[in-house]
Amino acid sequence: MSDPARPPSRGGWRALLPVLLLAVVAAAQVRLAKTAGLSPWKGGGFGMFSTTDDAGRRYVRVFVTAVDRSEEIAIAPSLEDAARRAAVLPRDAELSRLARRVVDRERRYQRQVDTVRIQTWRIEYARDTLAATTRMTREFVYRVDPPAQPRS
Amino acid sequence: MWIRLLSPAPETNAEDGVPDAVLTQTAIILLLRPLDIWWATPFVLAAACLALLFRPVRRAPLTWILVAVFVAIRIVAVWPLSDNHIYLLAYWCLGIGLALSGATPAATLAASSRWLLGGAFAMAVLWKAVLSPDYVDGRFFRVALLTDVRFADASLVFGGLSREQMAQNRAFLEPLPAGAELLDPPAFVEPPRLRAFAAVATWGGLILEGLIALTCLLPPKGRLDLARHGLLLAFCFTTYALAPVAGFGWLISTMGLAQCRPRQSWLRGSYVAVFILILMYSEVPWTRILADWTAR
Are A44 and B75 in contact (CB < 8 Å)? Predict the structure, then answer.
């Protein structure tokens, strides 16, 4: 039996390692939120229930252009996952991933794409009146490489 | 090393043994809210089942380290969409595995639990009080109580709104493009009771979370120890009655349980009761029942 008068153990490295991981991830989350637009609700920084800037109030708009077309496309179910990730963290990596998925899908349907333009948007509320407005947070342009020609 | 990770940790009833209830509750959490990717879920569910059924599996450090690895892989696979309690679950399972592999598992796990809760609550307070632009001015809860369907019934019951006013307010909170204005905008109704409810949620939450962070991070001593338990229980009892994140509540109550000393049986019982209460909160739509009843 341990001595009740003894001060409680701090647990050594075994107790500290998990919280060190927590601290590192949380610091990275704050940095990503402040520099790359990560939603404070996500990323392991425990910013949930602290702001209206959650995933449900962010969305993307996708426009494709080619020689004979320039239009906004609807987010198909096959694009939803990539679109959600891009809305929550609008970095080049996530936006390029979504753009590549868009290109793959368009090509599957035999539609030409030269450029994919992605806009990320969020809903904001006025301080006193709570009037809601939308604001574009980023615009990203992805230029499509022509598909490789089969070698003869 | 492998032998140490595979061999069950010491007897549960000994002073230095991690209470079985902490491990079984953690296994139950894994079963109640399975991970949502098909190639990780079966392993985690199987580990949780085996841990519940077989004591040696439950007390083997490797079980929990493997679960932590699978949870971490899930976080990476769906990056950045995981909720924060999934991160805490990964740290907690790692903490259990590491504690069980050491010489003083109970003390190590109690310290790990205290540090983890302290870190998580400190970050939550940092976001709410400092980093977020719309929490302290009350906007977050004023909007969330109206637009988040999971809070809707509580807003009807405690905010004194009618269902018609709720629908009207939701229409008002629909966004317009920047610079646009409606010719005939819907009215916005915010009764004083709703405003007060939002203020209590804003400041009550912040103060409670701040106190929990402090009591977890300060060196543990007699009364501070009791205060920490009281605050954690109060947080679980009040927050998860309304907040739709039972997974977080179960983790907090289990981590609180891990900080109880063997003689604090009433405190251990309180944490188990709160764990079950959060289950009730998540499965019984009590605010909807109350809202329907008060609307009659």
Answer: yes
Chain-chain contact of A46 with B178 (C-beta, under 8 angstroms): no
| Cα–Cα nearest to B52, from B18, B29, B34, B86 | B29
CB contact under 8 A, A15 and B81: no
User: Which residue of chain B is at minimal alpha-carbon distance from A136?
Assistant: B178
Nearest residue on chain A to B259, alpha-carbon basis: A8
Mean pLDDT split into 10-residue runs, chain B, 296 residues? 65 68 97 88 96 97 97 96 97 97 94 97 98 96 94 90 92 81 83 95 97 95 92 96 90 97 93 96 87 76
B88 contact partners, CB below 8 Å, separation of at least 6: A22, B116, B120, B248, B251
Q: Which of A22, A33, A127 comes nearest B137 by C-beta?
A: A127
Give A77-81's long-range contacts (Cβ < 8 A, gap of 24+): A78/A105, A79/A105
Which of A2, A9, A14 is most worth mutating to test chain B (most B CB atoms within 10 A of its CB)?
A: A14
Q: How far is CA B286 from the centre of its chain?
A: 19
Q: Do B112 and A133 touch (CB under 8 A)?
A: no
| B243 neighbors B264 (Cβ within 8 angstroms) | no
Interacting residues of B141 by C-beta distance below 8 A, sequence separation 6+: B197, B198, B199, B201, B202
Could you report the per-residue pLDDT of B86-97, keeping only the tens digit for each? 999 999 999 999
Residue of A nearest to B225 (CA): A8
Q: Do B142 and A130 make contact, defined as CB atoms within 8 angstroms?
A: yes
Q: How far apart are CA B181 and CA A86, in angstroms?
A: 29
* A22, B216 contact by CB (below 8 A): no
Q: Cβ of A33 under 8 Å from any chain B Cβ?
A: yes
pTM equals: 0.92
Taking the C-alpha atoms of residue A40 and residue A53, their distance in angstroms, rounded to an integer, is: 7
Nearest to B36 by CA among B91, B82, B93: B82
Lowest-pLDDT range of A11-15, A24-28, B275-279:
A11-15
Give chain B's end-to-end CA distance (angstroms, integer): 65
pLDDT tens digits along B199-208:
999 999 999 9
Chain A hits for B245, CB-CB cut-off 8 Å, are 48
Question: Tell me: the pLDDT tens digits for A34-93?
Answer: 999 999 999 999 999 999 999 999 999 999 999 989 999 999 999 999 999 999 999 999
Q: What distance in Å separates the CA atoms of residue A58 and residue B174, rounded to the nearest whole number?
A: 13
Torsions phi, psi of A140, nearest 5?
Answer: -130, 130
